Amino acid sequence: MALRFLPFSPLFNFSSSNRKRTVSTSATLASKQPVPGKPEADIVVIGSGIGGLCCAGLLARYGQDVLVLESHDVAGGAAHSFDIKGYKFDSGPSLFSGFQSRGPQANPLAQVLDALDESIPCVNYDSWMVYVPEGEFLSRIGPTEFFKDLEKYAGPDSAREWRKLLDAILPISAAAMALPPLSIRGDLGVLSTAAARYAPSLLKSFAQMGPQGALGATKLLRPFSEIIDSLGIKDPFIRNWLDLLAFLLAGVKTNGILSAEMVYMFSEWYKPGCSLEYPLHGSGAIVDALVRGLQKFGGRISLKSHVENIVVEKGRAVGVKLRGGQFVRARKAVVSNASMWDTLSLLPPEAVPKSYQDGIETTQQCESFMHLHLGFDAEGISDDLGIHHIVVNDWDRGVDADQNVVLISVPSVLSPDLAPPGKHVLHAYTPGTEPFEIWEGLDRRSNEYKNLKAERSEVMWKAVEKALGPGFNREKCEVKLVGTPLTHQRFLRRNRGTYGPAILAGKGTFPGHSTPIPQLMCCGDSTFPGIGVPAVAASGAIVANSLVSVTEHSRLLDAIGI
C-alpha cells in the first residue's frame, strides 16, 4: 500500500537561479508530438496519473487500442518526478509497502504491475522519525515495536488498549483483503469475476474469524472510529496516533475513513515480518514501469496534449478536442483520470444532467498543500538520517488543522542516485491542510504572493531544521522550491488545488466509475475506492475490466494467478 505521503508535486514558481528544469524519467521518452499514430483509439484516457496509467496499461494488456493524453511534458500526473540541478525530486507518494506482494491479497498496484509483467526494485526499511508534543522517537512497524513507544509517551493503560485493538482488527484483515482489486468490475459480471470466484476464500476467512471477528467484519464499510469506540479505546495518545494515520492515508480522521482501509493498513504494518519499501531511483520509477507496460502491449501516450473538451454527440462521448483544435476520436469510450470537478469543466453544459452537476458542485473538497523541495550538501548531516519524518506541533488543534502537521521525506538516504554525490534531496509539505481561500486571486508575480509564500512555508523550514539537526543551514541549500495551492491548481490542473473529495465514511460514498453520459467513465481519486495510490490503482483497474468482456477479464486473472 502507499499512504498519501507526498501526494502532489508541482512545477514550482522558481527563483531566477532555479528556473531551468530537466526531466530524466524514462516516461518522457513517450512521444511529445500530439497523438502519435492516428488521432483515434478504442479508448482515449485523459490524464496519466497512476489511475489513468493503470487503466490504460490493463486495456492495452487486454488488446484494446488505447491512447493516453497528458497535458504535462512528463507522465505521472500528481506522481511525476522532476530534475533540477542534478537533484531528482519525488512529487507523488513516497511511503510504500506491498510492492513485492503477489497473489489475491497483493497491493492493487502490484497486481497491475504483475499483469503488465513489470516489477520495481525496492529498498526495504522499517521505521520513520516522529516529533510530537510528548517527545520524539523512532517509530518502527511490526507487531511489538510500538509498545515501547507507548510505554514512554502514552498512559498506563495504553499497552493493553493497543493489544486489544490489534487482536480485534488483525483477524478481520483477511475479510478486508478477500476480494482482489483486480477481480472487480463495474457491471453484473462482477458476480463471476469476484463473487463466485472468491466466495470460498471469503467464507473460509469468516469461519476462521469466529463470531466476534465476523461481527467486526460487518463494520468494514463503516467509519473506523466506530471500531475504536466499540473497543473502549480511550488513551489520548493512541487516539491521536490513529487520527494521524487515517489522515495520512485518506485525508480524513478516524471518524471519516472506512474501517476497511485502516484494517488493510494495519495488516501491512503491524504483522510479523512486515517492512516498508522505497523504489530504487525514486517514485518516478513507478510511473516509468507503468508507461513501459502500456507501450509493451501496444498502448500509446501523447505528452503535451492538453484536452480542452470532451466531445459529446447524440448524447454519447465520442472523443476529445485538444488545445489547438485537433479532434481525437474514441471508438468505444473516453476515460477521464481528472478530478470530478475538472472532468465536469471539460463537458458541454447542455450534455450534463443537472442532478449530476449539482452532485459534483456540492461535494466537499479536501484542502490543498504547501510544499518545500530542497537540494543540499550532506556534510554535517547525521549519517543515520532516516527517510521519513513526521512533525505534529499540537494534538489539540487536530491533525487536520492548517500549519500543524509537516511531513518530510529524504529519499536520497535510501536511493543516493537521486542527488549528486555527497548531497541530499528533500521534500517537506503540509498534508492537505492548506486553505485555498487565502491564496485565491493572488497574482503569482506580486510581492503579496511572494510574502505569503515566505510566511506560510516557515512552518516547513522549522520542521526540516528540527529533523535534520544543527548541521543543516537553510541558506546553503543549492535548490529551494516553494509550492502553493496556486501551483497545484496551475500545473496539476486540480480544481482549487484540492487533494480530492472529502467524503466521510458513513455519511457518503465515493462515486462509481460510470457517468450519466454513455461511453464516458472516470477513474482516480474522485471515484471508488477513493484517495491514495492503492485506491486509484484499483479504480483504474475496475474501469479497464468494465470495458472488456467477462471472459477476457477471467483469462487475465488466470494468467496472473489470482
UniProtKB/TrEMBL annotation:
Entry-linked InterPro entries: Amino_oxidase, CrtISO-like, FAD/NAD-bd_sf
Gene Ontology MF: a single term: oxidoreductase activity
One Pfam family from the record: Amino_oxidase
Organism superkingdom: Eukaryota
Domain Amine oxidase: 50-545
GO biological process terms held by the UniProt record: carotenoid metabolic process
Protein name stated in the entry: All-trans-retinol 13,14-reductase
Species annotation: Solanum tuberosum
